[in-house]
Amino acid sequence: MDKSKLDPEDAVMQVTFLHLTWADEEKDRRTTFIDKNTDISRFAFSTPFTKTGKAFGSVTEQMKRNCVLRVASSFPYLLTAQRVVTREEIILDPIQSSIEDVDERTHRMNSLLDSGDVDPKTLTALLAGSVATQVHGGAKEVCFAFLKERDDSATAAGDTEAESKADVQWNHEDQEMLRRSMRDFLQAARRGLDVNLKLSTTEQQKLFHGNLEQQYSDLCMQINPLIKERKSKKKGGVRFA
Which of 47, 112, 113, 148 has the fewest C-beta atoms under 10 angstroms from its C-beta? Predict the structure, then answer.
């Protein structure tokens, strides 16, 4: 919201969805349901943007502003609304934004599978949006945008957009983090497919599952060369890049 463009005579209320968040030092101790849902004072929301001013763009343009708010007293509280006492903003560049999106999809898949009561429709919808190579902003597009080398033979024939994006030099640490996130993502998708196979009982469900398996196989074939652990030689031994 650009406050300079607001009419000072108008009273404006901004409403957005918030999710719970904790400081890094708190995450390890918040393991039980009670731990995760009491003594809550930090909330977060994200706003997508690009440098051109548009909210959305290609994966190499898409940035994200993560805002963390802290309220005066921890929830649960007698009042359901509280004044915000601190506000922290974190700007993610395109590759960092994509890493967060991949991690979120992996978390959603694993949370669903670990829930003990997997809804087949929810699972198939999540799998369809995860393993399809043609999904905008999906795993294939992200890998080709941030991990693709111009001379890498993994480039799909005619994929000139992916080649042009490879000209951009991204932070190597972020690239390695993206590779790890992608490997975790593929493992979660594999878990989801194994469970989905057991839940597919009708011919239509089995046919759809077979299509998901083929798409997963195609996806792995295309991005595995880009996300495998990369070894580099260093004096005194071999290390992972």
Answer: 47
Which part of the chain is CATH 1.20.58.740?
95-231
Alpha carbons 111 and 118: distance in angstroms, whole number: 10
Q: Is the bond preceding residue 8 a cis peptide, omega within 30 degrees?
A: no
C-beta of residue 229 within 8 angstroms of C-beta of residue 179:
yes
Q: How far is CA 184 from the centre of its chain?
A: 11
Query: How confident is residue 35, by pLDDT bands cut at 50, 70 and 90?
Result: confident
**CA nearest to 123, candidates 188, 186, 196:** 196
Q: What is the H or E stretch that residue 177 is in?
A: helix 172-199
DSSP string of 92-144, one letter each residue: E-HHHHHHHHHHHHHHHHHHHHHTSS--HHHHHHHHHHHH-TTSTT-HHHHHH
Q: How far apart are CA 207 and CA 212, in angstroms?
A: 9
pLDDT tens-digit readout, 17-32: 898 888 877 877 888 8
pLDDT confidence band for 1 (50 / 70 / 90): low
> Quick one: tokens of 132?
């399809």
Q: Is there a cis peptide before residue 94, judged by omega within 30 degrees of 0?
A: no
